[in-house]
Design goal:
Family: Belongs to the bacterial histone-like protein family.
Keywords: DNA condensation, DNA-binding
CATH topology of the largest domain: HU Protein, Chain A
Distance between the termini: 16 Å
Structural class: alpha+beta
GO biological process, one term: chromosome condensation
InterPro entries: Hist_DNA-bd (IPR000119), Histone-like_DNA-bd_CS (IPR020816), IHF-like_DNA-bd_dom_sf (IPR010992)
Protein name: Histone family protein DNA-binding protein
Number of helices: 3
Mean pLDDT: 92
């Protein structure tokens, strides 16, 4: 499912206009992004936690040439699913992907 499909499903189930749902989804995503940029965690009980993780600088290898390369330190986004989401996804009623 992509963002457009998500908006369509939410609009249909909530009986709100696609325009209104689009504004809410965009606001939701921008709020999470802004909090993560500040280094804050965003926890949605029963769904999961959005946060960041710091990765140290390290030496890697170019797989094509085998030469050593330096990989800079960075901050990466991280999502940890909540217990309810994990259990829902792992339930026997969930359809299995091939």
């Amino acid at each position: 499912m992509n963002k457009t499909e998500l908006i369509e499903k939410v609009a249909k189930s909530s009986k709100l206009s696609k325009k209104d749902v689009h504004a809410v989804v965009d606001g939701f995503l921008k709020s999470i992004e802004a909090s993560m940029k500040k280094g804050e965690k965003v926890t949605i009980v029963g769904f999961g936690t959005f946060g960041t993780v710091s990765r140290k600088a390290r030496t890697g290898r170019n797989p094509k040439t085998g030469k050593e390369i330096k990989i800079a330190a960075k901050t990466a986004p991280k999502f940890s699913p909540g217990k309810a989401l994990r259990e829902s996804v792992n339930s026997k009623a969930a359809p299995k992907k091939k």
